[in-house]
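Handout, section 3.2

Students often ask what a structure token actually looks like in practice. Rather than define it abstractly, here is a full record for ResB-like domain-containing protein. The first block is the sequence as you would receive it.
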Amino acid sequence: MWKKPWGYKEGFICGAGLCVTGLLLQWTIGGVCWQLFAWPVNFIVLILYLCLLAVMHALRKRVYCFGWLSHYTAAVSSLICVAVITVVMGLVRQVPSTQPPAELIGFSKMLSFWPFVLFYVWLLSTLGLTILRVSSPFEMRKIPFLLNHVGLFIALLSATLGNADMQRLKMITRLGQTEWRATDENGKLIELPLAIELKNFTIHEYPPKLMLIDNETGQALPKDDIPEHLLLEGGVDKGKLQDWEIVVLQSIPMAASVATEDTLKFSEFHSMGATYAVYLKAKNVKDGRLCEGWVSCGSFMFPYKALRLTEQVSLVMPEREPQRFVSDVTVYTREGSVIEDTIEVNHPLKIAGWNIYQLSYDETKGRWSDVSVFGLVRDPWLPVVYIGIVMMMIGAVCLFVNAPKGKEKKVDNKVNPEEMFEKEEVSVQTERILWSREEKEECV
């Protein structure tokens, strides 16, 4: 072991050493605080790191470790270590960045876990030194290789250092009001260089449905299977739920409950807080029992109304599920721009370096909500990440275009294992001779 040239054994020992070092750092000083790398610290770290790679590349013939880091054995070893710890990250539930790790080791907060960060730096350093070694001397045939590796290096490095500059904020706006303040993950109030005025908020709901529930537990029936429901859409006015035949006699999309002397009924109500109500008959096909009455899902102003069929079963209308909710907004920027647009789920608004997403609304009021909650995300390093991804895509296309065409001549399909082993031994011995020659030249 530790005989030149270094191989996978030495690589995995280096990985074990980094893991032990990371654990000691984790238990002594805590996890990595990425907020310390906010601008301009991350830019300074980037310049120093690139200079360090350049110095290591220049000293690769004097310091054997620096030269080995650009070898494929170091690349494979680092890649395996990163893959293993990434699998652990996927198996362990991660906690938000604002919370401490759920266990002593720190697996539940992997992005701040020192062994993960050290493995990541090892992989990046191997990638960077490989790029420097291959690029000198420069040849046209190396372009696909360099595009792939340089693109990956740029994407990984910029995504890591730019993490501290990413802002994820939440803004609560009210109808007819302009808001320019938002809160971060810690609840800190932050003033923004833009303001949002909520002009209108609309919710499109799925059609109402009827279900049977157990009066004691409140569970939908049947309990041991997928609950049955009757969807009231497209003029549907009859159906069957288990042993009950349902016939809808009257349907009021905008209704209000009105209490009488002995019962509760619904009437038309075209105003805020209106609910959906139906008057129906339910007949049991087994014993012929007949029940009729109003059923409603209710709203923040009016309670829901269920129809009791038996002592064990009731017919209810659950709350209507939102299908689509849209916010009509006017955005004002510090530069004086005024933009009117709509924001909905999966259709964010991009303005002044911010992505504005539709997050939520006042769920207690449902379709009558006068509150819209937006998520604002700003990532100034994202264009650099995209540049790296585009370079990798171009490199992949170049590899595909420059792939050798035609069938190669087959010399001998039979492979002698002994000859392969001899060739490998010769290559290893040759590499050792080259390294010994370089060391002698350095001594001279």
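Discussion prompt for tutorial groups: The chain has three domains: 8-136, 168-204+323-378, 207-320. How would you have guessed this from the sequence alone?
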